[in-house]
Amino acid sequence: MKRMTALLLATALTAVTLTGCGNGGTRLSIATGGTTGVYYVYGGGLAKVISSDLKGVEASASATSASVDNLKLITSGRADIAFTLADTAADAVQGRESFTSPQPIRALARIYDNYTQLAATRGSGVRKVADLKGKRVSIGAPNSGTLVIARRMLAAAGIDPASGVKAQQLGINESVQAMKDGTIDAFFWSGGVPTAGITDLTSTKKDVSLIDTTDLLPALTQKYGQFYRPLTIHGSAYGLPADVKTVGVPNYLMVSSKMSDGLAHDITKLLFDKKAELARVHPEAKNLDRQLAQQVAPAQLHPGAQRYYTSG
């Protein structure tokens, strides 16, 4: 497990290093997430293939707070491509919660599902989300998709997210370290499997469990729609003794509506042409599926991406 963590991070860091300055062509910034999360690793791989395979285009992957932050970077022009959760994308296109008005964003693809990973120390007594009441809990970095779903889950469990837990807003790296240090009892993380930070934690701290969150699924879907669905985290992914059921939500790859049709087409095509190469960077890329990729409601596909999907 430690070797896999090191390999995934090394691959991502190499990809970012390879996508530096160029000869005055198009430069793209990919907004990802924390450095031990899947977005960062996957984004580094995408940056590498864009830079090596699209003539005159260079890309680099940047660490961010993830979903909400990423979409704001897109709409402000400070990033060109963004990884985001479907529920956050829905908020953006509908102009609600973290977004004061509908945002001019379009999707290139639905790429894989995020797993809500609620980690807790066994001594904390946490067996379900409702048990978090009064506990020291990291609910995700500011402007992250994790923060969105953590607050929604706490509310669904009857806990006030503002006062019902001793909340800290930490990213995945900081959450893992805080649990190692014993300064939190639990943390939420929404990410692919395996997430390097979780792998590091479960391989070095043996009193950590992942918690089943599926009892909250009916309340979440009733209030927010069908983004949320049951998924299973296989114990073998993290060296755990048993599988864990949890709530999942899709990830979308988003761009500004202002991106040219040609560039959006070429990036979308590259995702599928280089699927095997991206899967060597992170196994979640194996889940790219041409039919499923088009299911990005309530967002809309970019016209360039739509042209790729309908071209046969």
Which key features would you list for this structure?
312 residues, 38% helix
Secondary structure elements and pairings:
Elements: H1 2-17, E1 26-31, H2 38-53, E2 57-62, H3 67-75, E3 81-85, H4 86-94, E4 105-121, E5 136-138, H5 145-156, E6 166-168, H6 172-181, E7 186-191, H7 196-204, E8 208-210, H8 217-224, E9 229-233, E10 244-256, H9 261-273, H10 275-281, H11 303-310
Parallel strand pairs: 1-2, 1-3, 5-6, 5-7
Antiparallel strand pairs: 3-10, 4-7, 4-8, 4-10, 9-10
Identify the overall geometry. Answer: globular
The helicity comes to 25-40%
SSE order: HEHEHEHEEHEHEHEHEEHHH
Structural class based on helices, strands and sheet pairing:
alpha/beta
What portion of residues belong to β-strands?
A: 15-25%
Largest sheet: 10 strands, mixed
List the uncertain runs.
1-23
Query: What is the average of the pLDDT values?
Result: 92
Question: Helix count, per DSSP?
Answer: 11
Cα-based radius of gyration, to the nearest Å: 19 Å
What is the number of strand segments? 10
Distance between termini?
40 Å
